[in-house]
Amino acid sequence: MVKRQRRYAYSEEDRAALDRLDRDFRRSLLSWFGRRTRDRADLEDMVQEVFERLVKRGGASELERQNLSAYVFETASSVLTDHLRKKVTRHSDAHEPFDQNQHGGADFSPEHVLMDRQQLARATAVLLELPERTRVIFVLRRLEGMRLNDIAKRLGISVSAVEKHMQRAIIHIMRRIDFE
């Protein structure tokens, strides 16, 4: 089940309250969050979350007449707690950031897609040249990752026979690749 977030419609009063909150508290909230977390990239998001919660709560003008500062930092504390809880449950420290040099480089141009399809067709044709049992054993071992013992039990043959079929398949594939 996908949770859908409702879009909140801000009134002119809400926009004015946001402007006042931004003007009066942005710097101090950035500093407050900065002292409590190492996630420099998330500081702005957490400040925005504080402002959003305050506006969604409603009555920002009423809060302004009382002790708004205390309420803002109480809300900030709640935002920080939620942020840290999400970080722990999602294991965000274990994620590796995307590096174009390391992870990128896949070329999906029409020429490369066509070349890859042609290579796949050639590989399929080479596999289809193999006897059926040899082909099945090769696919189970190399593509499905099954162990030799499991393949032997599944097909009712010895492990030695499975090894010989694998050897035959590899020799055939290597010879065919050399000629193309």
What secondary-structure arrangement, pairings included, does this model have?
Layout: H1 12-36, H2 43-57, H3 60-65, H4 68-89, H5 100-103, H6 110-129, H7 132-143, H8 148-155, H9 159-179
Helix pairs in contact: 1-2, 1-4, 2-4, 7-9, 8-9
Description of the molecule:
This protein is mostly helical. Helix content is 74%, strand content 0%. The protein is built from nine helices and no strands. Helix 1 crosses helix 4 (68-89), helix 2 (43-57) packs across helix 4 and helix 8 crosses helix 9. The longest helix has 25 residues, at 12-36. The model has no long low-confidence stretch (mean pLDDT 83).
Tags for this entry?
0% strand, mainly alpha, single chain, 180 residues, 9 helices, elongated
Q: Could you state the order of secondary-structure elements as H and E?
A: HHHHHHHHH
Tally of DSSP helical segments = 9
Q: Mean of the pLDDT scores?
A: 83
Shape: elongated
Tell me about the biggest sheet? none
Annotation, overall tally of beta strands: 0
Could you name the ranges where pLDDT drops below 50 across 5 or more consecutive residues? Answer: none
Approximate strand percentage: under 5%
Radius of gyration based on Cα positions: 31 Å
Short characterization:
The protein has 180 residues and is mainly alpha-helical. Helices cover 74% and strands 0% of the residues. It starts with 11 loop residues before the first helix and ends with a helix.
